[in-house]
Amino acid sequence: MLKSLPILFSFLLVVSSLSAQDFNFDNDDAFAQFSPNAWGSIESDVYENFYLFNPQRSSVRAVLDTFKRFAPSSGIYRQTLETHYGYDANYNLNFRRNLSFVSDAGTILPNSEIFGVYNEDNQLLSDTTYVFNLNTGERILDIKRQLLYNGDGIWIGTITEKWDNNEQKWLPDVMIDRVLENGFLITQTRKTWNAGTMAFVIDRVDNYEYDASGNNVLYKLETLAMGMLRLTQEITREFNSSGQMTFFSSFIASAPDFALRPFQKVEIEYDLNGSRVQEILSLPATDGMNIWRNATRTSYTYSETLIIESILRETWSLASQAWNVTTKTDYEYDSFGNLLTTSEYTPLSVPDSWLISRMTDFTYDLDFEPGSFINPNIDFNPNYYMQTAVQINQINPAPAINSRQEYIFKLVEPNSTIELVSEIFKIFPNPFSEYIQVDFEDLNATFLRAQIFNNSGILCLNQQVHLNTPVNVAHLIPGPYILLIKSADGQVLSSRKLIKK
User: Fold this and answer.
1) Is residue 459 in some structural domain?
2) Within this chain, do residues 480 and 394 fall inside the same structural domain, yes or no?
3) Which residue among 228, 268, 384, 435 has its CA within the 20 to 30 Å range from the CA of 250?
4) For residue 5, which of 425, 300, 409 has the smallest C-alpha distance?
5) 410/53 Cα distance (integer angstroms)
6) Tell me, what CATH number does 485's domain have?
7) Strands 45-54 and 399-411: what pairing?
């Protein structure tokens, strides 16, 4: 269920809201609950994140992120990084500024700034990035991108330019061309500007193939090497009927012969509930070409409510031709399913005996209004989250706290009133039994992609959805699920909680 809250809120940053100047922040008591002296010389980190709830997408948008690190020399927290986000009236991210605090005196210097421009369909048309020298604050690099779309509003290319200070004008830099069929990306070609020939030269081509369900089963990369395009990477994937990847293999090529050689292979097994129960990583053997050797095996154990209970990791021994256990991690939850503790163990010589090596505790404060956050890995709404890692000394078993991360999440209200548009997606029925249907008649798209995750964050369904066409979900077991609706290019458009009867 809960994997990592830093990942969760990184996921939420992908989408957008209003200008940071339109909000009021009360920072006076934000860090009052933290006592640096109690932690001695531990370099703990504190994050504070402000969000705006966006009714258009039933999700939240970042407004301000701050990061503070405890400085043992001064005994206080020092502001280190700060990121501001700005949005237009349609919740499109059109401004982001990164600031760095570069000295104990609190000197603030800009790191980078990005400005975006959108069309009436809320598609990004262009963005301009300014990069600054962290030592002087001088602007050292400007980059401008222009995004191109076809008649169906699908992204088909990008033109990038860089600012030349000597000539005081924009010069060509990179061009990306995308070829799509039935909404799927088939080929993406990158060209870089050659100042000598005054022309774009191809330096990379990405090729994709799909199965009947729209899963990417083959990927090939060609790169410019020794004056010509050469096949340098090939990835093969296999999927089950639920759209879950069951097999992955990667081959790479390099000079002098550019022959494809194995790089890694992963085989994944699922149970009847769609939960991942085992994955085996194989690496290339050193005694022959295109020969795989077992490397690591990871096994997962779940509770009756499909929440992860334990993960067992093993490595393959060539000498004994057997799997040897390396670590085991146990997970403990409260009655609401919130992760409380992870405990990592290493095996002892006595069978089924373990030595604990690391524990991590999680603390939450659940004050947000239900429904504010929606994510496949989490179904509650914390406004405070703390992770404390305890390293266990195997010689002297006295625990020692060696890291601490604290996160504060706050919803803020805009000062100005915004005219909101109605939600463009209808998902029904909910609760469901055998079928669901996604209605996106008001959206200019021929198809979308639906992904359904169970309460453990496991992908249970991944397929195209078409207008007025039911989606068969009879294979799902009763319980709660999260549905993500994505555009053809992978952008998350909406997320809903569903219940299987």
Assistant:
1) yes
2) no
3) 228
4) 409
5) 10
6) 2.60.40.1220
7) parallel
Q: Provide the residue type at 334 as one letter.
A: D
Does 38 lie in the same domain as 4?
yes
Per-residue pLDDT, averaged over 390-412, amounts to: 57
- Average pLDDT (201-220) is 94
Domain span including residue 438? 426-500
437 versus 284: the higher-pLDDT residue is: 284
Give the list of residues 6+ apart from residue 433 with CB closer than 8 angstroms, or none.
474, 500, 501
Q: How far apart are CA 71 and CA 17, in angstroms?
A: 34
Look at the block and give the residue holding tokens 């980078």. 112
User: Among 34-38, 227-231, 261-265, which stretch is predicted with the lowest mean pLDDT?
Assistant: 34-38
CA distance 374 to 376: 7
9 phi/psi in degrees, rounded to 5? -80, -20
225/232 Cα distance (integer angstroms):
9
Number of compact structural domains in the chain: 2
The neighbouring-strand residues paired with 207 are 187, 220
Return the structure tokens found at 411.
């919803």
Which among 421, 455, 470 is the end of a domain?
Answer: 421
The answer to whether 498 and 485 are in contact (CB under 8 A) is no
User: Taking the CA atoms of the chain, what radius of gyration do you get in angstroms?
Assistant: 25
In a domain, 319, yes or no: no
Q: Going along 195-319, which residue ranges are E strands?
A: 199-210, 216-225, 228-239, 245-252, 261-270, 276-284, 292-302, 308-317
**Closest of 308, 355, 303, 360 to residue 327, by C-alpha:** 355
pTM value?
A: 0.67
Q: What Å distances lie between residue 85 and 14, 16, 54, 438, CA to CA?
A: 12, 9, 14, 31
The sheet carrying 492-500 orders its strands as 459-466, 447-453, 479-486, 492-500
Place of tokens 């939600």: 423
Residue 465, number of CB atoms within 10 A of its CB: 20
Which pLDDT tens digit goes with each residue over 446-490? 677 888 877 666 778 888 887 777 888 888 887 778 787 777 666
Q: Is the Cβ–Cβ distance between 42 and 68 less than 8 Å?
A: no
Cα–Cα–Cα angle for 490, 251, 275, nearest 5°?
50
CB contact set of 183 (below 8 Å; sequence gap of 6+): 152, 154, 446, 447, 488
- Planar angle of CA 200, 206, 210, nearest 5 degrees: 145
Single-letter code of the amino acid located at 488:
A
Do residues 385 and 409 make contact, with C-beta atoms less than 8 angstroms apart? yes
Phi/psi for 417 (5° steps) reads: -90, 135
